[in-house]
Write a structure and sequence with these properties.
By secondary structure, the protein is an alpha/beta fold. It has two domains: 61 residues, 2,3-Dihydroxybiphenyl 1,2-Dioxygenase, domain 1; 52 residues, Roll (2,3-Dihydroxybiphenyl 1,2-Dioxygenase, domain 1). The protein has two helices and eight strands; from the N terminus they run E-H-E-E-E-E-H-E-E-E. The strands form two sheets. It has a four-stranded mixed β-sheet with strand order 1-4-3-2, with helices on one face. The chain has a four-stranded mixed β-sheet with strand order 5-8-7-6, covered by helices on one side. Strand 6 and strand 7 form a beta hairpin. The model has no long low-confidence stretch (mean pLDDT 90). Keywords: Metal-binding. Pfam families: Glyoxalase. InterPro entries: Fosfomycin_Res_Enzymes, Glyas_Bleomycin-R_OHBP_Dase, Glyas_Fos-R_dOase_dom, VOC_core, YwkD-like_dom. This is Glyoxylase I family protein. One of its GO terms (molecular function) is metal ion binding.
Amino acid sequence: MNIKKIHHVAIIASDYQKSKEFYTEVLGLEIIRENYRSERDSYKLDLKLGESEIELFSFPNPTKRPTQPEAAGLRHLCFYVDDFDEAIRLLNQKGIETEPVRIDEYTGGKFTFFKDPDGLPLEIHE
């Protein structure tokens, strides 16, 4: 097997419209395609993230995440940004709270966390 990159990450939103607005208008991800699947009463929104994608789903009554952020399973998504300080400024300007900036003890890079509308932990890293 020769894995090259992550193709996509799938996220299930409790409020599809709110999450769609967050990922497109706050984070600025481009919509590739959006489909409504009537047999599942579910939307599937594909968003461009560099060479990868985020799939944003809606389902009726999705199960809540057990705890934050130390539950077994996917811990968080991390996005690389070119201008770390500007990214924080833009998030805060749009009403998104960010945690205090930390320094990675191994790489020396700056990083911080914030949350999507469902409380999914997201990270930006320089």
